[in-house]
Amino acid sequence: MTQPITQPMTTGQSAPVRTVGPDHVARRLPGPLTALRWEVRKLRAQYRARAVLLVAVLAPVAIVVVIHGQSRPPKDTLFGRFAIDNGFALSLLVLGFASQWVLPLLTAIVAGDVFASEDQHGTWKTVLTRSTSRSRLFWAKTITAGAFATLVLVLLAVSTIASSWMIVGHQPLIGLSGQTIPAGTALQLVAASWAMMLPPMLAFTCLAILLSVWSRNPAVGIAAPVVLAMVMQLVGALGGVEAIRPFLVTTSFEAWHGLLTEPRFSGPLIEGLLVSGGWCVASLATAFVLLRRRDITGG
Amino acid sequence: MNDILAVDAQGVTKTYGSLRAVDDISVRVAAGEVYGVLGPNGAGKTTFLRMLFGLIRPDAGTIRVFGKTWEDSGVRVLDGVAGFIESPRFYPYLTGRQNLEGLALLDGGTPTGLLEEVLDVVEMSERADQKVGGYSYGMRQRLGVAASLLREPRLLVLDEPANGLDPAGIRDMRALVKRLAGRGLTVLLSSHDMEEVEEICDNVTIMTRGTVAFHGTIAQLRTMAPDPGHVLATTDDVRALKLAENRFAITVARDPGAALIVTGPPTEVSSYVGSLVSADIGLLALTPTRTPLEALFFMLTDDPTHQSLDRPAQLQDTLR
């Protein structure tokens, strides 16, 4: 198939180079996972992504050390009363704080950038003139952003729980109904509570993806989800908005409360799953249509 | 030679709001030829090439590439097609080699050793492991050519490939395109430089304001080109003008910058200059205004800043 084609650009030099002639046959299409491999490879090369992972591991340790070293506990926050002498309570305190805006920020740093950075670097025309379709690139980027969000949450959770356990201790936990939860069960419930952050976090990931596609601006893609999270928190705290409160993504961040009451209730968990899923589907469907229909004129 | 056209664009139109960026143009590029799309900035060349690559959807018309359309074949329409639009762009935080490896991945892989070979061709082997963020414009342009060759193309589409290159870079780029064409590759080249197209291309489409102003071979274009013009500076322009009155094969006129512009066949211009010397009129300068093809290009594209003083109206009628 191949034959010599040309020499180096500069005249007077030669090198054995090959390429195709007019009888070239159709090249093979890349497999479904090649675009995903490319996205992961790019992500691994970015300092920003590595920095986020590092923060997810180290920041909880620092926070645990600082709170544990305080003489007075932050009593006005959920589980704050027991935070300085109960590792499970401190894990849940960090969880409550993270769900305010930290989780939306950490996921948006990648998800809000993953599409817009192609505009920033002018590389849409580079990748879309290869043999991979827009649809494949869209799903590769979406899966990469979702996987990154999951990894960040896992690292944050493991680091928080482990450092709280080791530094503060693992005494039985006092639940939200005043019940005493044995250490073994408390560990499972704290881990489950962290796991329940995943659906709303993925919803914010998808929202960041939509903003990234729509705005074509990494700054908007990263900052806007954080601002939206704060606005949702504010709206959720207002009176007279009971009808819309369940549909806010941030409400899903509170679904874990049901695990720590006696008796436990799972309604908010199911509601949170449905709401987060709804936000994911709506955001991704809109982003997909926007990207498919878009004229690539820049770069 | 293959019977299927490399590019067969028919009635292609693209509108942005009230602006018709490309207005009902048709371009046919046979396999194996080097085809130029020429026009001033804003003529619609890049919009046309973006539509060919599927980056932009045309509002009307069809573009077939080796017989395939985007509607029928999706991304497979780009099988055997490579190139770049405007300046090639890469990921600045990756090295040149990593960029090429990634792009090869998106192509479904490349034969062993080809990556090194294309790096050799563009003489980037030694800089391939540096991050693209530190590359000069010319280096990125070379990497763009390497990325294109990596696809082992049958059709190479280059949008103003010499843009931003120094004279040596321009010479090397043109030499490379010629060598590629010599190996049977179809080359579709857009440019705003008549000299470049004249040097490289067999056929040309000249575009202006989204429409086709001329379509044909370079040889045809040459036959339509006006006589060459020269800027003439003498010690006595009044007498020089008077001496030209009886010479019907040439035109001598005073341009707004007060110099004389002499237009006519080279032999007649030479004879006229000789008569000036014989008449003891000092010759201070005789410089060509532009090549005949350049003059024709400016006429066709109707660029008011490049209007020729000796623009023949009948030529315009012939061309249109």
From TrEMBL, chain A:
It comes from the Bacteria. Keywords: Membrane, Transmembrane, Transmembrane helix. The keyword Cell wall biogenesis/degradation does not apply. Pfam families: ABC2_membrane_4. The chain crosses the membrane at residues 51-68, 88-116, 137-167, 187-214, 226-249, 269-291. This is ABC-2 type transport system permease protein.
TrEMBL record, chain B:
Pfam families: ABC_tran. Residues 7-234 form the ABC transporter domain. It comes from Nocardioides psychrotolerans. Belongs to the ABC transporter superfamily. Transmembrane segments: none annotated. One of its GO terms (molecular function) is ATP hydrolysis activity. It comes from the Bacteria. SUPFAM superfamilies: P-loop containing nucleoside triphosphate hydrolases (SSF52540). SMART domains: AAA. This is ABC-2 type transport system ATP-binding protein. Keywords: ATP-binding, Nucleotide-binding, Transport. Signal peptide: none annotated.
